[in-house]
Amino acid sequence: MPTYSEEELTEALAECAREPVHIPGAIQPAGCLVSLNADLTRVLQVSSNLQELLGISVDEALSHPPAHSLGEELITRLGTRLTADMGKMVVDDVLTSAATGERCRATAYRSGSRVVVEIELLGPLGELEILITVGHWQTRLAAQDSEAELLQVLVEGVRALTRHDRVMVYSFDSEWNGQVKAESRSDGINSLLGHRFPASDIPNQVRALYDINPVRSIPDAKAKSLPLVPKQCPESGEPLDLSVGNLRAVSPVHQEYLHNMGVAGSLSVAIQGDEQLWGLVACHAMSPLTLSPASRDAAHLLAQMAIQRFQRLRLMSQQRFRQRVQETRVLLYETREELLGAGDLVQRHGHDWLTLFRASGVGMVYADTVSRVGKVPDVDILKKVAAWLAESQSRAIAWHSNVLGETPLGEWVSPQCSCGLLAVPLSVDVDRQGWLMLFRDELRETSRWAGRPEDIPKMKNGRLVMSPRHSFEVWQQELTGHSAPWQEAEVLAVQDLGEDLAIAASASEIFNLNETLYQERQALAEANRRLERLALTDPLTQIWNRYRIETALEAELNAAARYGREVSVLLFDIDHFKSVNDRFGHEVGDRVLTLLAQTVWKALRSCDAVGRWGGEEFLVLCTGCTDEDVMGLASRLLKAVSDVDFEEVGQVTISIGAACWKPGESQTDLIRRADKAMYQAKQGGRNRAEKSE
Q: Which UniProt keywords are present, listed alphabetically (predicted)?
């Protein structure tokens, strides 16, 4: 095998990533295509097989008005429905083939300044049968209570609709490698369940197309592409962008990939997550398989139904985790009167934290105190880790890694001890800082790849290009030196826990100072000022912190129980706040939190109070509020926030959960109802308020 330089291989990979798959200048022979000018008065380009479906030669179509090829009625309807501002919208219509007399679907969409009409045979109608089948599988999807079972029902349903030999759900990791999470296959078809596929199998420009068009159908992977005539638009001289359509020709590289895999036909349906592509429903046929447009649409619909249920299950799981975290924080809050030190608190609650955060050990370094629970490095190493964190972290935010050996901490922490660390600061003030650290054991995995994950370089037309791998035989890779990754919800929860622990530790410290240093008034005054700042005010937003708002809520509930007053709470957080931090950075995110807090504070009545509940969550305490009053206040807050210009971020929205106190109800139950209502607001579309019943 010839050898190539690193520069040659890099350029070949870059060339692969630049392949213009959206402008192939050709279509698949599953239909025909007519491209029109913007006002539908001229035929600009057609596919070379026009005669087969429309009974008109290429020259005849190009030399006559569009109505000659497509009919006056269709052109009139398209003129009405394809408005200039419709963006990527697709319009479907029906016409009869002049060549065969069969019914066809005409799919029209705008591509730049042009209008593209793709025509496919409808095939055997069977819409009623398809509708019944979709209804059956929709019912089954709605009944699933686990993600794994839901995905399995999805692949079985799609295979029942499309008759492919293998249907998989394929999810992406953070590096865009894929893994098969569920599979349904015919007898005799080898299983790919659990197999991984490298990111290069679906390059960036191909993944981007799924954001534009969620369905990609290849009825016959070996079929020869049919060129467009002329090759370029005669008006602009540019190639025709077929991103939105169904007939876009298959890339030669992808044809080779499918051939090497033994696949003769395929269908892919995008599964979108909250902010990006989550995965695909990937269907393989071992012989060419032409789907009717209705079957293709039904598969897409079933995937959309499944992802809605999938997201619902994810939200429910996150809510259960949040509730467990809340219960843990309540336990810390309830021990405040015991004035336990930070080390004692870790010893009392550390084993619960191990279970909650799937950790192998908990360590804490705070002032001169070191506390350890479970499997953690020794005391000297913990102190070194804490010192490195304090020096390297420019801001008081969480630090985490699931590959400690690839960080400077790998010098002290061996893989045998731990491979994962999530650390949050216990900040009392600038000069006094500690760290709460959660460790995770090494996670040894055997990764099963569908073929060795590497492309093969070869010379083609005098240029070095990358070609797909030839073998998809299982290639196993032993993965070591890493732990299970830390989830965003876990990071946020530990940050809140660290804040609670810092407050409790500070309270204990102040109590001890009051006991032992009573005569040293200067030190006592400074300590009390530090406690007051920490105990009452959130240092970032300058509104009440969680401890202060919880104390006020407890007092208000006691008064309500005694005097029969009405009390309500509004729990809200910022919609898509993670994307703000990811896109603009945490400093911008902090400014958003600060401006939001001040906006809400100004919009409240004088008798109301607001505090930062944790992260991007805030709690409003409303006294003397009826159901109608609290929802009116919620509406006012929604408008006040949406009216604010958050500088580079632009508009920010919030989702609010409202709950009115019921006699005899605990603070925990009241907050739980508000939290549930807030998640209902998010599920209902965000930027809204929901009230708990």
A: Chromophore, Photoreceptor protein, Receptor, Sensory transduction
Residue 620 main-chain phi, psi, to 5 deg: -110, 130
Cβ neighbours of residue 676 closer than 8 Å, sequence gap 6 or more? 319, 657, 692
**For the chain, which residues score pLDDT lower than 50?**
1, 4, 8-10, 12-13, 464-466
Query: What does the alpha-carbon distance between residue 89 and residue 538 come to, in Å, rounded to a whole number?
Result: 47
Q: Which two tokens stand for residue 664?
A: 């005899």
Tokens matching residue 344: 């004692």
Structure tokens at 576: 């898509």
pLDDT at 425: 87
How many residues appear in the chain?
Answer: 693
User: Are 469 and 455 contacting, i.e. CB atoms less than 8 angstroms apart?
Assistant: yes
Q: Which domains does the chain have, with CATH numbers?
A: 13-21+129-231+246-308 (3.30.450.40), 26-121 (3.30.450.20), 335-443+482-524 (3.30.450.270), 537-691 (3.30.70.270)
8 A C-beta contact, residue 595 and residue 644: yes
Omega before 230 within 30 of 0, i.e. cis? yes
pTM assigned to the model: 0.72
Q: Which pair of structure tokens corresponds to residue 8?
A: 């040659």
Residues 6+ positions from 542 with CB-CB distance below 8 Å: 594, 597, 598
pLDDT at 123: 75
Q: What is the pLDDT of residue 12?
A: 45
pLDDT one-digit tens code per residue, 333-357 = 777 666 677 788 888 888 998 998 9
Q: Is 185 helix (H, G, I), strand (E, B) or coil?
A: strand
The alpha carbon of 512 is separated from its chain's Cα centroid by a whole number of angstroms, namely 47
Angle, alpha carbons 497-529-363 (nearest 5°): 30
58 vs 25: CA distance, rounded Å: 15
Distance CA 387, CA 397 (A): 15
DSSP-H helix ranges across 163-203: none
Helix/strand/coil (H/E/C) assignment for every residue in 565-596: CCEEEEEEEECCHHHHHHHHCHHHHHHHHHHH
